[in-house]
Amino acid sequence: MKVGIYGYGNLGRGIECAVKNSEDMELVAVFTRRDPSTVKIQTAGVTVASANDVEKFADKIDVMIICGGSATDLPEMTPALAKHFNVIDSFDTHARIPEHFENVNTAAKSSAHIALISAGWDPGMFSLNRLYANAILPNGNDYTFWGKGVSQGHSDAIRRVKGVKNGKQYTIPVDSALASVRAGENPDLTTRQKHTRECFVVAEEGADKAAIEKEIKEMPNYFSDYDTTVHFISEEELQKNHSGIPHGGFVFRTGTTGWNNENKHVIEYSLKLDSNPEFTASVIVAYARAINRLHQEGNIGCRTVFDIAPAYLSPLSDEELRAHML
Amino acid sequence: MKVGIYGYGNLGRGIECAVKNSEDMELVAVFTRRDPSTVKIQTAGVTVASANDVEKFADKIDVMIICGGSATDLPEMTPALAKHFNVIDSFDTHARIPEHFENVNTAAKSSAHIALISAGWDPGMFSLNRLYANAILPNGNDYTFWGKGVSQGHSDAIRRVKGVKNGKQYTIPVDSALASVRAGENPDLTTRQKHTRECFVVAEEGADKAAIEKEIKEMPNYFSDYDTTVHFISEEELQKNHSGIPHGGFVFRTGTTGWNNENKHVIEYSLKLDSNPEFTASVIVAYARAINRLHQEGNIGCRTVFDIAPAYLSPLSDEELRAHML
Question: Which pTM does this prediction carry?
Answer without folding.
Answer: 0.96
